[in-house]
Design goal:
Blueprint (H helix, E strand, L loop, with lengths): L1 E2 L2 E8 L4 H6 L5 H8 L4 E7 L20 H12 L1
Antiparallel strand pairs: 1-2, 2-3
Length: 80
């Protein structure tokens, strides 16, 4: 991914925990998010730079060892 002069790459799926439940005061939030099949990603910064809220980014094709949706499906299967 690239935004302005910054660039990074996906290196894993975010696994939410009890802290999310506590932060939004909903004891079912993590399970609901996992069942939905959506979640966050961790990004490794390759080229440091400034980012601003709402700034557009470009997805740059790279290796496709594991598609993002496969990572989410695997995380979802662990929660059931």
């Amino acid at each position: 991914m690239r935004s302005g002069e910054s660039a990074g790459e996906r290196w894993g799926c975010q696994r939410s925990c009890y802290k999310l439940n506590a932060a939004i005061d909903d004891p079912t939030a993590v399970r609901t998010m996992a069942r939905s099949g959506f979640g966050g990603l961790y990004l490794a910064v390759d080229v440091p730079g400034s980012l601003m809220t709402g700034q557009a980014f470009e997805v740059i094709a790279g290796p496709r060892e594991t598609p993002v949706m496969e990572l989410f499906k695997a995380a979802r299967a662990r929660v059931r």
